[in-house]
Amino acid sequence: MKLKYSPQDEAFRQEVRDFVATELPAGVRRKMQRGERLEREDLVAWYRRLYEKGWATPGWSREWGGTGWTPVQRHLFDEEILLGGAPRMVSSGIIMLGPVLIAFGTEAQKRRYLPDIQRSAVWWCQGFSEPGSGSDLASLRTTAVRDGDHYVVNGQKIWTSYAQFSDMMFCLVRTDPNARKPQEGISFLLIDMKAPGLTVRPIATLDGGRDLNEVFLDNVRVPVENLVGEENQGWTCAKYLLGHERGGIAGIGAAKQQLGRLRRLAGPRLGDPVFAAQVHRLEIELLALEATALRLLGAGQRSLAPAAQTSMLKVRGTELRQSIYRLMLEVAGPEAALWPGAHDDDALAELRALAPDYLDARKFSIYGGTNEVQRNLIAKALLAA
Ligand SMILES: Cc1cc2nc3c(=O)[nH]c(=O)nc-3n(C[C@H](O)[C@H](O)[C@H](O)COP(=O)(O)OP(=O)(O)OC[C@H]3O[C@@H](n4cnc5c(N)ncnc54)[C@H](O)[C@@H]3O)c2cc1C
């Protein structure tokens, strides 16, 4: 069963589908099929194709290179990219920093940073979380003290995705330790990853990944012109940014793609009514999620803005995707007990990538704000009303 879209939207869907089929670099496609790690150059190769087509930054305002698509077109675009086997958009510069600079940056900051973000020439990471300050982000302790025309930054960030290959980091720092409320003493700074005193240390993850890091800042000097928005007003930028981060995390396109993969891997097992019922249940839940997302888009939301709805989609989407991975692991059986090897043939490589994929999927309900915290936000927004 499928949801119905207008003929114009279906034509748009087809255009995106054709683009992915012809433009996704072969090397990236193969790595995706085999479940292999993508390096910065793989992601950039694909994002550059999107940039050349004018599709790299659909979430940005038109003035700065957005596409001006309707929310439904954006939904279809996200879906077709993943269904076509391309990597999802993980550039923090494109998803998070770009919208913040457009909304809060100076003209000079926009001109300096936005074009390089758009063509993926400069890679950014997000320095928000700290040890002890994840869900309770406003308790962060990294300090920035003004010294002439610089801030001097000291502290530690953690779980910084892709810091190992980033050129720059957008960062929350405490500029006023005596503010009335912790949120009021925070500023938003742009930091060069090559600045003296900045060190990156990788964190190994269960799935064998190496994309998470700790970032240590020891008397790092940051020019004052790298402050975004007003000093001590960084929380406003952060809240705006988190809405953009969460918007895409529901991953409806990803769930469809993984359900297709589940069906393909299951093959004859779909003849087993007990197993088939589990697959159908996930399909129905996904259909309900898609219908909900479209209903919210149709209700006049320009985009999935920070709101209880975004949290709701994030919780349901991530739980659903985790259930799909659980069932895929079951399908792979003993093969999934072996770690992927460089010389596996493509079919075996795909099966053996399922255990790392399953473990990797555990993070869906943590990043972008944990699902427990999203439930709190939903409760506050809906029950307190
Ligand atoms: C793969 C991955 C990538 C990430 N990338 C980045 C990044 O690039 N940049 C960055 O800054 N951060 C990043 N993060 C960090 C992420 O934002 C935090 O992990 C997340 O906000 C949770 O914070 P925490 O890990 O400190 O857990 P904690 O806040 O310590 O939470 C621990 C547990 O307690 C629960 N809990 C906490 N508070 C409440 C509450 N009030 N009510 C109910 N339950 C609660 C949580 O749900 C969780 O289960 C990433 C995380 C992951 C897993």
UniProtKB/TrEMBL annotation:
It holds the Pfam family Acyl-CoA_dh_M. Residues 7-117 form the Acyl-CoA dehydrogenase/oxidase N-terminal domain. The keyword Flavoprotein applies. Keywords: FAD, Flavoprotein, Oxidoreductase. GO terms for molecular function: flavin adenine dinucleotide binding; oxidoreductase activity, acting on the CH-CH group of donors. Residues 125-220 form the Acyl-CoA oxidase/dehydrogenase middle domain. InterPro entries: Acyl-CoA_Oxase/DH_mid-dom, Acyl-CoA_Oxase/DH_mid-dom_sf, AcylCo_DH-like_C, AcylCo_DH/oxidase_C, AcylCoA_DH/ox_N, AcylCoA_DH/ox_N_sf, AcylCoA_DH/oxidase_NM_dom_sf, Mycobact_Acyl-CoA_DH. Residues 232-383 form the Acyl-CoA dehydrogenase/oxidase C-terminal domain. It comes from the Bacteria. Its cofactor is FAD. GO terms for cellular component: plasma membrane. Belongs to the acyl-CoA dehydrogenase family. PANTHER family: ACYL-COA DEHYDROGENASE, ACYL-COA DEHYDROGENASE FADE29. This is Pimeloyl-CoA dehydrogenase large subunit. It comes from Caldimonas thermodepolymerans.
